[in-house]
Design goal:
This protein is α/β, with parallel strands linked by helices and 340 residues long. The protein has 13 helices and 14 strands. The strands form 3 sheets. It has a 7-stranded parallel β-sheet, sandwiched between helices. Helix 1 runs parallel beside helix 13 and helix 5 crosses helix 7. It is globular and about 65 Å long.
Length: 340
């Protein structure tokens, strides 16, 4: 009999080409856990993982460890996993769905993997920025459609004459600063939790107010965490401060940006372009405002894949398994990414 039951609630990597859960996909995890663990790879129905409701609670009940991706930790989930569960891990950087305070209040460790995809996210961010700067997607679309015109999309800007602004100066924000400096003449950052001294060490100028950064930047990239205080930080009021014709790129969380504010700014021409890897809900086609945003030629979007590479995914999965093994087998707190 296995010593530990570990439930992966919604492991997208476990879905095979036939649209079914592939038990063999967890070879990496089994190599870490050895024979000590029983792995449960979610409940997959009608092309989606079940992430709530009675069937979901039945799935997680009795787990010694829980691994989530998009699933939400709620009081009902915690009630279902007590008293057996010792640790809940999120396979990702963010922790807005982890509910770390609730886990801590119930004596359950909560952890994420905050730094496994820094290179991927920053590279993806710059890809969106440069695609907008050079109108690459519009040129690609028009030329493949039979129209050869070097002026489709208008005149690009000389980026070395411009200022880039970063909202959120954590691990990813700092790495983005280095990459942005290769293209932009000046880089600013807004993060009330990071001192000016650290920003100066990265060659970045600190802005004390979000409005100041928006007003001075020709391109704004968002790398902030999502919490109650940052939800819709880009809204109709704040976006009114943005420099005319500026680009806005979000590779952090969908709910950091109010869709109505972006739509209005695109219609008015205040925004010169919008790039986003993240939306709420995940598929922007399912949201009436985001669906309208997709129709603009100066909008470039991707399907929440900024984090993605084979190397990053393997690292994230390995690290989650190692932390869970550390808690369950060794009786130690998580070493990396510990939140609660």
């Amino acid at each position: 009999m296995s010593a530990f039951k570990i439930v992966y609630t919604d492991p997208m990597w476990a879905v095979g080409a036939d649209g079914e859960i592939d038990p063999g996909s967890a070879a990496l995890e089994r190599a870490v856990y050895g024979s000590e663990a029983e792995l449960v790879l979610g409940r997959y129905e009608a092309g989606a993982f079940v992430k709530e409701g009675p069937a979901f609670l039945d799935l997680v009940r009795g787990a010694d460890a829980l691994v989530i991706y998009r699933a939400q930790i709620t009081p009902e989930v915690v009630a279902a996993i007590k008293p057996s569960c010792k640790v809940v891990a999120r396979q990702g950087v963010g922790f807005d769905n982890l509910n770390a305070p609730l886990l801590a209040a119930n004596g359950i460790y909560g952890l994420n993997v905050p730094d496994y995809c820094v290179d991927e996210v920053t590279t993806h961010t710059l890809s969106l920025v440069l695609a907008l700067e050079r109108q690459l997607c519009l040129q690609n679309q028009r030329l493949k459609g039979g129209t050869w015109n070097i002026f489709d999309g208008g005149y690009p800007r000389r980026t070395n004459d411009l200022t880039a602004g970063i909202i959120g100066f954590g691990r990813i924000g700092r790495a983005s600063a280095r990459k942005l400096q290769a293209f932009y003449g000046r880089v600013l950052a807004y993060d009330p939790y990071v001192h000016n001294d650290l920003m100066r060490g990265y060659g970045v100028t600190k802005c004390d107010r979000l409005e100041d950064l928006l007003g001075q930047s020709d391109v704004v990239v968002i790398h902030a965490l999502l919490d109650d205080g940052s939800k819709f930080m880009i809204n109709r009021e704040s976006i009114a401060s943005i420099r005319q014709g500026a680009l806005l790129v979000n590779t952090a969380r969908g709910n950091l940006v109010q869709p109505e504010a972006v739509l209005d700014s695109l219609r008015e021409g205040r925004l010169g372009g919008y790039g986003s890897d993240v939306f709420t809900p995940e598929d922007p086609n399912e949201h009436p405002i985001n669906r309208q945003i997709l129709g603009f030629d100066n909008v470039v979007v991707t399907s929440h894949r900024a984090f993605l590479s084979d190397t990053a995914e393997r690292s994230q999965r390995t690290r989650v398994a190692e932390e869970i093994r550390r808690v369950l087998r060794d009786g130690q707190p998580p070493l990396f990414g510990r939140l609660a």
